[in-house]
Amino acid sequence: MSSASYTSIATLPAPVTARTHEHYNIVDDFFGGSTSRHDRHVESDSEALDSANHMPPPPAYAGEDDELPSYTVEPAEPVTLTMFLFKFGFLFPLFWIIGAFILLSPLRPPPQKINEEGLPAIWLPEKTEVERLEILERMRTVEVKWARRCLWALLSLFLAVFIACMAFWMFWKS
């Protein structure tokens, strides 16, 4: 027997996209996407680099010497008693009266208490005196804002009740 040698050059077929399930989805073919999370694309590395979807990275946002903009974050509004009085006043309007009376009361810092060692206990001891005054001023501003809202809600309620009473009286009289 003679041995024949065959020399052939094998060429690889072009990579294709394969689906892991056997169902054909017309929506996927039309829109070019995948509606199933079980689909996976099988591509070779050369196709991934040469594909039309490959885009160069976007340019840098700013140069190394450029300074990026800085933003300040406003601290959250402190939670106050009058805020709760206003919100719960919709269920029990007498809370609006109590909240409106805060406009008449002097707003003072909390009293200093004496601790176990006989020294005055300071409100917010981790803060400096200036920071404590800033916090107190912010709380006063927020208290007054919500107290005014309580007053306006109370006046609106009185006006609505007055109009309803006048309408009822006009209807009853005629």
Can you describe what's shown?
It is a single chain. The chain folds into two domains: 15-48, no CATH class; 81-173, no CATH class. Mean pLDDT is 77; it is low at 42-46. The termini are far apart. 42% of the residues lie in helices and 2% in strands. It has 174 residues and is mainly alpha-helical. A two-stranded antiparallel ribbon has the order 1-2. A hairpin with a 5-residue loop joins strand 1 (113-114) and strand 2 (120-121). It has five helices and two strands. The longest helix has 45 residues, at 129-173. This is Transmembrane protein. The chain crosses the membrane at residues 84-104, 150-172. Residues 36-65 are annotated as: Disordered. Keywords: Membrane, Transmembrane, Transmembrane helix.
Class computed from helices, strands and strand pairing:
mainly alpha
Query: What's the oligomerization state?
Result: single chain
The average pLDDT value, as a whole number, equals: 77
Low-confidence stretches: 42-46
Spell the H/E element sequence: HHHHEEH
Helicity, as a percent range: 40-55%
Radius of gyration: 37 Å
Distance between the termini: 128 Å
